[in-house]
Design brief:
With 271 residues, this protein is of the alpha+beta class. It is built from 10 helices and 8 strands. β1 and β2 form a beta hairpin. The protein starts with 31 loop residues before the first helix and ends with a helix.
């Protein structure tokens, strides 16, 4: 499935087209102080180093509040301060993140399957899971082309910008609803921008069982995805990514490989 024509001569671009920050989440029913601390941490999703004034301005809080929160986070290792006074994410946050990564059941089952797909196709292989209106790639096996395309970019993308988002949304009503509520902001020439196009794309995914998207996230890259479905519900996706000319020539070959891989992962997943 493709929402836009592609140009084999179009250049692959780098990190700028990727979503680098997590969405702001509500704190209804929770502790405001905890919510503020988490908001401070999320400021670092887009920037590696920030000062107290930067954080205060982004969150709309007093500098004294930002300073207190940063000091508390630093005392627990969630952020650290360099000699110039700027803050960055701390090593303890990295430790906790790696524990979450290692303990992800879907990733554990999918990883050996992904390695086989990467060897068979020669493309970058992604494992995506839904988070609200977005897709988070919790595992990635990169080819040389994938390294060139992705650089050091983040792993979160709005669902309407990726083939993974399309196949998950087609078989997961919650993700579909959340994306509709969030809207369809453009990112590249192939990004879905209208509700009608979203409806058409999901209907096509349901008919054929996979999605192909050209220049959805950034110009010059294309992806093919298949949903990982447990009891009919999409809990994730497996996809390949590469330069548009290579993926276009390879769609017929990779779709059966991805479909078999998704079925294998779903059967092994501890439901």
């Amino acid at each position: 499935m493709s929402t836009a024509t592609h140009d084999p001569t179009e250049a692959v671009v780098g990190d700028g087209a990727w979503c680098t920050s997590t969405p702001r989440r509500g704190t209804s029913g929770g502790l405001r102080s905890v919510g503020t601390a988490l908001d401070v941490l999320e400021c670092f999703a887009a920037d590696s180093e920030l000062g107290v004034s930067d954080v205060a301005r982004r969150l709309g809080v007093a500098k004294s509040t930002a300073h207190r929160v940063l000091t508390t986070l630093a005392s627990r290792g969630f952020v650290e301060q360099d000699a110039s006074g700027l803050y960055r994410l701390g090593i303890h946050l990295y430790e906790l993140g790696m524990l979450s990564h290692a303990r992800n059941g879907l990733r554990h089952v999918a990883l050996p399957v992904m390695r086989a797909v990467a060897e068979q196709t020669g493309h970058t292989v992604n494992l995506g899971i839904p988070d609200g209106a977005d897709i988070v790639y919790v595992e990635r096996i990169e080819s040389m082309d994938g390294v060139r395309i992705l650089g050091h970019s983040g792993r979160r993308q709005p669902a309407h910008c990726t083939s993974s988002g399309l196949v998950i949304s087609a078989f997961n009503p919650t993700v579909d609803h959340d994306r509709r509520e969030a809207g369809f902001p453009p990112r590249a020439r192939g990004t879905i921008r209208r509700v009608a196009d979203w409806d058409d794309a999901l209907a096509e995914v349901r008919r054929q069982g996979h999605a192909v998207l050209h220049s959805g996230s950034f110009t010059g890259a294309s992806s093919v995805a298949v949903p990982i479905r447990v009891q009919g519900m999409a809990i994730g996706s497996i996809s390949v990514l590469g330069p548009t000319p290579l993926i276009t020539l390879d769609v017929r070959r990779v779709v059966p490989l991805l479909t078999a891989a998704a079925n294998r992962i779903a059967k092994q997943y501890p439901s």
